[in-house]
Amino acid sequence: MQNEEYLSLLRQGVSQWNQWRKEHPEIQVDLSNLDLREISLVQANLSFANLQGAILEGANLSGAILLNSDLRQADCKQANLNGSNLVSANAQGAIFTQAKFMGGTLVDADFTGASLEETDFSGADLSGAILKSANLNKATLCEAKLLRTNLVKACLTKTDFSLTDLREADLRGAAVSQADFSDANCHGADLSEVDLSSANFSRAILPDPTCHL
Q: I need a labelling partner for 161 at 20 to 30 A (CA). Which of 24, 71, 131, 204 fits?
């Protein structure tokens, strides 16, 4: 099928789209480089879909299933991805500025080099996710789960990690100026090569008992 044929199917509504995907699980959906801004994708089954370079600025993808999807270089600025499933998705270099992932499941997703400024991950599960060299300046990860998450050399200026589970997370070389780690659990986290002087670790569980900030 051609890209435009997939687009025509999506325009028929999510229920019809999901039914079609259920009936044709063998088809690899190609939505690459398409403009999907005007299409409702609430709870849409986009698992294993090729969304590379797609335009999803301001799109509503709440509750969508993006399991193993390819979102590389996609433009998802201000998109609503609350409650979505991005397990093992590849979003390298994608733009998610001011997007919302509240309560989402992003386990093992790859956001290497992605733009995530002012993005809201409150209550989301990013366990095992790769956020290496990603820009999360002013992002909100309050009460999120980042167990063993890779944040190596990530930009975390003024990022909110309050009440966040950062156990065994890797933050080597990350920029955490004025970041808020209050009440966070950082047990076993790697904070080497990180300037912690202006970050807030009030009531946080530190990486190890001998660590003093």
A: 71
| 124: containing domain | 1-213
Torsion of CA 80, 84, 86, 92, to 10 degrees: 0
What is the structure's pLDDT at 147?
Answer: 99
Long-range contact pairs involving 146-151 (C-beta distance under 8 Å, separation at least 24): none
Residue 64 pLDDT greater than 80, yes or no:
yes
The domain total for the chain is 1
Burial tier of 176 (Cβ tally within 10 Å: 0-12, 13-18, 19+): buried
Question: Distance between CA 90 and CA 203 in Å, rounded?
Answer: 35
The per-residue pLDDT for range 114-161, each reduced to its tens digit, is 999 999 999 999 999 999 999 999 999 999 999 999 999 999 999 999
Please count the other Cβ atoms lying within 10 Å of the Cβ belonging to residue 101.
31
Q: What is the average pLDDT across 15-19?
A: 98
Q: Which residues, other chains included, contact 19 with Cβ-Cβ below 8 Å and sequence gap of 6+?
A: none
Say which CATH number the domain at 138 has: 2.160.20.80
